[in-house]
Amino acid sequence: HAVSDRMLAGIDERLGHPAVDPHGDAIPRPDGTVERAPFVLLGDADPGHEARVLRVSDADPMLLRAITACGIDVGTEVVLLRDSRIEVAGSPVDLPDGAADAVWLTA
């Protein structure tokens, strides 16, 4: 879509200048730079790792729905218990297959 810089600036302002989209993908700044927080994939995190979800992949819509159904979204606080099992809001949650490579956590 072709839109003017002025229109983009207005949209950005109305949205509160978000740094990421709803799935956690970085939104470039007006100068084109992108700020990325240090992260670790859920599957690479060690048991006991306490983190906040930074990004959830939207490449597979069915997997995204399954992850969301587990109560996991950008900003959710989690604790890794063991492979494919985390704690969300004090309750253990079994993750769907593929989630380990589709969820990015704070490092």
Mean pLDDT: 89
The overall strand count is 6
CATH class of the largest domain: Mainly Beta
Strand order of the largest sheet: 1-6-2-3-4-5
Structural class: alpha+beta
What do these coordinates show?
This protein has 107 residues and is α+β, with helices and mostly antiparallel strands. It has 2 domains: 1-33, no CATH class; 39-106, SH3 type barrels, CATH 2.30.30.90. The protein has helices spanning 5-14, 61-69; strands spanning 39-41, 50-56, 77-82, 85-88, 91-94, 103-106. It has a 6-stranded antiparallel sheet, with no helix packed on it.
What is the topology?
Blueprint: H1 5-14, E1 39-41, E2 50-56, H2 61-69, E3 77-82, E4 85-88, E5 91-94, E6 103-106
Antiparallel strand pairs: 1-6, 2-3, 2-6, 3-4, 4-5
How would you briefly describe this protein structure?
With 107 residues, the chain is of the alpha+beta class. 18% of the residues lie in helices and 26% in strands. The protein has a 6-stranded antiparallel beta sheet with strand order 1-6-2-3-4-5, with no helix packed on it.
Feature tags:
SH3 type barrels, 107 residues, alpha+beta, 6 strands
